[in-house]
Prior knowledge:
Elements: H1 2-19, H2 43-63, H3 70-78, H4 82-97, H5 101-122, H6 125-136, H7 143-158, H8 165-200, H9 207-213, H10 217-228, H11 240-256, H12 262-267, H13 275-309, H14 324-336, H15 340-343, H16 349-364, E1 367-371, E2 382-387, E3 393-400, E4 412-417, E5 420-421, E6 427-428, E7 431-435, H17 450-467, H18 488-494, H19 500-506, H20 517-526, H21 531-549, H22 562-573, H23 589-593, H24 602-620, H25 625-634, H26 644-652, H27 659-664
Parallel strand pairs: 3-7
Antiparallel strand pairs: 1-2, 2-3, 4-7, 5-6
Amino acid sequence: MKRVLVFLITIMAITACNKNPFLQKWDNEYAFPPFDKIKTTDYAPAVKAGIAQQEAELKAIIDNKETPTFENVIAAYELSGDILSKVNGVLFNLAESDATKEILDVVDTLTPVLTEHEDNIFMNKDFYNKVAAVFADSASLDREQYMVTKKLYNSFVRNGVALDDAGQAKMREINKQLAILAQKFGNNLLAENNAFEKEIGVPVSSYPTFMTTCTDRAKREAAFKAYSSRGNHDNANDNKAVLLEIMKLRTQKAALLGFDNSADFILADKMAHDAKTVDTFLASIMGPAVGKAKEEVVAMQKIMDEDIKAGAVEAGAKIQPWDWAYYAEKVRKAQYDLDENQTKPYFRLENVRNGVFKAAEKLYGVHITSVSGLPVYNPEVKTFRLTNADGSLVGIFMADYLPRSIKRGGAWMTNFREQYVDAEGNDVRPIIANVCSLGQPDDSLHLLTIDEVQTVFHEFGHALHGFLTKCRYKDVSGTNVARDFVETFSQFNENWAFQPEILATYAFNGDGQVIPDSLVVKINNSLKFNQGFMTSELCAASILDMKWHELTSDTDWANFDVAAFESKVCKDMGLIDEIIPRYKSTYFNHIFNSGYNAGYYSYLWAEVLDKDAFEYFVQKGIFNPEVAKSFKETFLEKGGSEEPMTLYRQFRGADPDPAALLRARGLIQ
Ligand SMILES: [Zn+2]
């Protein structure tokens, strides 16, 4: 009887296992994730099985007695971990877009397990030695193979695999402390944000609107002071000591790996390559940006002077940081006369989405059609099929555009499946989602603001980067490129949003009338509004980020004065008193808690390529088929299979002109 029971339990366990969708072949149409069959209880056993699978695959690579080659080391690794790719693709996407309590609990439980698995791979010296052997003999590799090998090799080195045991132990300790401190920085900021809301009466997310609309100057001043001093109140939530400790450890980590400062370590595998290059780049933007901002102050002061005359503001008052948004809005109304209530009826979400598709069809020759019947993770998700002119599949697009209480704020593109060539030589096409929270919850037509229209184009630009890619290896396909390159195609795609030819295909109001030319002109003019300020505060934050990460290990951290450092950095960069960096150090979450350290410049950096490329399109005709074909085939399709600048030169026949960014923002003529 007992034996029968054991037998029965084993059978049941196998059956349960077989029903786990992650452990089965997804043989539905497009091998689409079977969201309708996935249960919360499937993740943990799938991760366990996935880790076991990849460990076995790695063991086979390491135990192979043949001479290490690209195929038996790098390509074999690229194809490993199939189960984990499936589980992670679903789990970590849902944790952002459809984050039920159950999913978040699963993520909490599985994250440490998966982190440990990753550490086990990238601290494995036997595996590293094989990768290093292939990298050392890279002359026989083609460019894509070389780029994949280099990327994998760098992942090891940057994790400290080449250090001796004491060095590795120190590295592990630094990483552990850094993770704790980053969390602490974020928690302190959260508490300070709540304190701000309590004091001022509006949440931090509404601060920009408050500063634009609040007519009471004293209240604006109080709000500005509370906002810009978050994390700097010498209380339990003060972030000064936390960020200094973070910087100290980051500098130590860079030194362990042979770098003078953290910025040079971070940048070594980025497009910009070193801190000096980024500094020079940012300085070239700061001058014209501040120049324009000074003109903007003059225009605002004129309006303020009228308020002084009318007795609404005290005599002798000058524009202060807390006046900027309020008076800029008055200038905008006077100079641009743009009322979004007039434009919104033409920007119905569904129509805007069609416009984005039309632009892609016109430029890159893809066809985009709706597909029904795929088992989506939420009924609000719409699915589309992208095909080439010959009918072959480009990929599956999931549009998840509406706000939900269990969706993270913001907008992003994500892959549920990357593009790659499988072991049988099949080109596996990607499944990509754009996730946003567009429109107002009480508006069933989902009428979008100008900013939201740009967001739809931006995120689909990332999607196109992922869709059109033609690579062989996952690690370099699509958007798997350097952080300071990845915003290029998304920002580039925004250029098409308000082109009259594209607007004519999508911007219809409820009566089917296309947006009038007068509004199109107003929209396009207003895109250059307040750019002196916007560029200055963005560039100032980027420079502040760089200056922190250029500090060296001989810095006297114990006696470091954060405020004095910050004001010296702002003075040296030529920032005017009316503007502060978009983020000050004690609430600069991007660089102290979310991976943008020595990386906040990336948006501006990528914008140079985007604007230079767009100027070229304008010169040759924005729908010039030869230019679009060359852009697609020499640049957009290539992912990380070649250095970005090499790809760009192949397309453009020249280096990008940094002034293209300044022209596009209206900072120079
Ligand atoms: Zn983006």
